[in-house]
Amino acid sequence: MPYWSLYLEGRGFSYLQIATLMATIQLTKIFAPSLWGWLGDRTGLRVRLVRFGAVIGSLCFAGVFLEPGFYGLLLVMLLFTFFWNAILPLYEVITLRVLGRQKERYGRIRLWGSVGFIGGVAIIGGVLERVPITSLPWLLLPVFAGIAISAFLVPSERGEKKAPAPRGSLKAIVSHPAVVAFFAMNFLLQVSHGAYYTFFSIHLEQFGYSKLSIGLLWSLGVLAEIGLFLVMHRITRHFSVRQIAIGALMLTMVRWILIAEVTDVVSVLIFAQLLHAASYGALHVISVQYVQGFFGQHHHGQGQALYSGLTFGAGGAVGAWLSGFLVEGFNTSIAFWGGAIAMVFAVGITWRWLRPPPESTVT
């Protein structure tokens, strides 16, 4: 993600084309996780589905090496992300099922994805200082192959079984006012991240930052996320879901304003990246547990898929696309201001309607 927009820029695509291609990564999250989540709930074969998604997704990504034009690359990314986006929601469910009553340990497990991100960004950023950005797909292919191989090291269907007949109405859960507010909050959160995931690297490059510096700044945000994961179980003991969400959303708004206006001051930019602990870490942890609390065992897979699809998928795609128009018509700073405005609406919705799930393990 940190270097893909730079790769697309190096291939000669316009800002709007870059935004469209980056939106594709989120677009398939709207429907793909729901399909894979439904299959996982009905068959109980989540580990096998993860393996299938990792292998086929990696094969589809290889289409990048054909160097197709805009529409060809759009097709490749649609196919790749359709299978790739099956992996994480299924792993979330597998992890929480295995943890059982020890759900507070989720953050400590999830942080290893962040550790991998930091290592990958640092290594690839260092290599890209010496090779052209168009070499990026060759650097990514071994990573995808490694994930596909590691998926086969997870014990097959351990701790899993076919879900019993669902109890309660999924429609009733989804239409609950607190659940609607929860999805609206996260949708706007991901809309605000559109400029970040699509144009942050380009924004930094315009201010003279090197590719290695860009990678390190991305990694700093994830490092803050790791720190948050380690202490999140303590935070949830002292603050409610609503309090954590409102605080995190307000800090996210501050983060986008700082990136928009004070990019050239390194110390301020470092502080803005540390706020990633709030804009992603805190909100993601409480959201995963929130979904489990409201959707329960019988609809957990579909609930997790809806969370991924309606927020990361729809919100991320809309945010990336809108940011493309803002950058094309104005500049990257205005796109980050758009994200800050989205947070104003998210805070209002959360303040008015967000409530904790019944009998939830989240405080």
Automatic annotation (TrEMBL):
The chain crosses the membrane at residues 12-37, 49-66, 72-91, 111-128, 134-154, 174-192, 212-232, 304-322, 334-354. It is a multi-pass membrane protein. It is found in: Cell inner membrane. This is MFS transporter, PPP family, 3-phenylpropionic acid transporter. SUPFAM superfamilies: MFS general substrate transporter. One of its GO terms (molecular function) is lactose binding. Residues 178-363 form the Major facilitator superfamily (MFS) profile domain. GO terms for cellular component: plasma membrane. Its main location: membrane. Keywords: Cell inner membrane, Cell membrane, Membrane, Transmembrane, Transmembrane helix, Transport. PROSITE patterns: MFS. InterPro entries: HcaT-like, MFS_assoc_dom, MFS_dom, MFS_trans_sf. It comes from Marinobacter segnicrescens. NCBIfam families: mfs.
